[in-house]
From TrEMBL:
Binding-site list for FAD: 44, 52, 57, 97, 132, 296, 337
HAMAP family hit by this protein: FENR2 (MF_01685)
Cofactor names: FAD
Stored InterPro entries: FAD/NAD-bd_sf (IPR036188), FAD/NAD-binding_dom (IPR023753), Fd--NADP_Rdtase_type_2 (IPR022890), Ferredoxin-NADP_redctase_2 (IPR050097)
Enzyme class: oxidoreductase
Species of origin: Paraburkholderia unamae
Keyword NADP attached: yes
Family: Belongs to the ferredoxin--NADP reductase type 2 family.
Catalyzed reaction equations: 2 reduced [2Fe-2S]-[ferredoxin] + NADP(+) + H(+) = 2 oxidized [2Fe-2S]-[ferredoxin] + NADPH
Subunit structure: Homodimer.
FAD/NAD(P)-binding domain ranges (all copies): 16-303
Name used for this protein in its record: Ferredoxin--NADP reductase
Keyword NADP appears in the UniProt entry: yes
């Protein structure tokens, strides 16, 4: 079991359930935890909730969510956020759970890569296919320049002030940053492997307007070679159908999208070689008592990677999690339609 020291001296956040992942299943789990009477904390490695729904297909319609004949993936996430609002579950976004260790009293301690630590009676892993990480530039010289001249996200816009910036990619992030950095950078060049984009039409139109007005450049091609004689990027070669173009470059912002990687979960002693967590289907508990898995990461015979399966799995897992949080209490099931406290909470957020 990997154990990472915490970077901050803040006390551990104590909770009944730690939910790893704010995809659709993690979000529904936060609501269900509230209904059952469990406090929870949610952590996700990316900056926004929604998991695959938001990262991979936000504008596609979904037709198989019970009682919602059709909604986009983004709309589903908005509805799930609205549904868990009565419990106001704390969400820690942009932080990946790195380590998980068993404590002597039977509880679990988990730490994020940003130094937050949680002390939880139970852990629900709703981590999908793993944490989303940026697709990297596959050039041998790239790793040495990462963080200084090559970036996969924008931590501070001032880094690009007065500089020659090349942005590689053709999705929403690439277009949005190309337009946002126009007033900041000395020169912005957008490089994409084809003339078409997978981004909002309005952004594409604004980009073409800026190019036509001579405010930025757009080059069709792929990043071929990086020139960094002093350990700092000076120019890049863009491979084109015929020949290549050299572009003066101080910073290269690579926005090729995100890929999922299991990452640290592989070290927690619960995942199989395929990167899934085998569970017992009575409560979707893993081989380690108190650690549960729901959604795409859970593995059992006939598993269907569907959002509705994840909702069911999370709901049952939390019922067993209750017994870890409150070993001396017997939970009495009340249908939500008869749950006066729940009705009050929901009414409170709508008044
Ligand atoms: C194109 C496409 C269309 C689809 N259409 C449908 C459909 O119509 N109907 C349907 O039911 N399903 C559909 N699916 C499948 C559905 O999206 C998944 O089943 C669902 O997203 C699984 O939800 P999840 O919450 O388990 O995982 P995810 O949505 O993958 O979310 C997991 C989250 O966990 C986070 N995470 C992982 N590891 C860590 C860590 N260590 N620390 C912190 N955070 C972490 C990730 O960053 C991610 O945000 C579709 C999938 C795709 C790709």
């Amino acid at each position: 079991m990997v154990s990472t020291p915490t970077l901050s001296s803040a006390p551990d956040i104590r909770t009944d359930v730690l939910i790893v992942g704010a995809g659709p299943v993690g979000l529904f789990a936060a609501f269900e935890a509230g209904v059952i009477g469990l406090s929870c904390q949610i952590v996700d490695g990316i900056e926004r909730p929604g998991g695959q729904c938001i990262e991979l297909y936000p504008d596609k319609p979904i037709y198989d969510i019970p009682a919602i004949p059709s909604c986009t993936a983004r709309d589903l996430v908005d509805r799930l956020m609205e549904q868990c609002r009565p419990f106001d579950p704390p969400m820690h976004l942009g932080q990946r759970i790195e380590s998980l260790e068993a404590l002597e009293d039977g509880r679990w301690r988990a730490c994020t890569d940003q130094g937050l630590a949680f002390n939880a009676a139970a852990v629900l892993v709703a981590a999908g296919n793993g944490a989303f990480v940026p697709q990297r530039l596959m050039l041998d010289e790239a790793p040495a320049l990462e963080g200084r001249s090559i970036h996969y996200s924008v931590a501070d816009v001032n880094t690009f002030a007065g500089k020659n910036v090349v942005i590689a990619g053709g999705g929403d992030s690439a277009l949005d940053w190309a337009l946002s950095l126009l007033p900041v950078a000395q020169r912005v060049t957008l490089v994409h492997r084809r003339p078409g984009f997978s981004a909002a039409d309005s952004s594409v139109a604004r980009m073409h307007e800026a190019v036509a007005a001579g405010k930025m450049d757009f080059v069709v091609g792929t990043i071929g070679q990086l020139h960094a004689p002093q350990g700092r990027l000076e120019s890049i070669d863009v491979r084109q159908i015929e020949g290549s173009a050299r572009i003066d470059t101080d910073h290269l912002l690579v926005l090729f999208g995100l890929v999922a990687a299991l990452g640290p979960i592989a070290d927690w002693g619960i995942a199989n070689p395929a990167g899934k967590i085998p569970v017992d289907t009575s409560y979707y508990e893993s081989s380690r008592p108190g650690i549960f898995a729901a959604g795409d990461i859970a593995a059992y015979p006939n598993k269907q990677k569907l959002i509705l399966s994840g909702f069911h799995e999370a709901s049952l897992a939390l019922r067993k999690a209750y017994t870890y949080a409150f070993p001396d209490k017997k939970r009495v099931h009340v249908h939500s339609s008869y749950d006066a406290k729940l009705a009050e909470r929901i009414a409170a957020v709508h008044t």
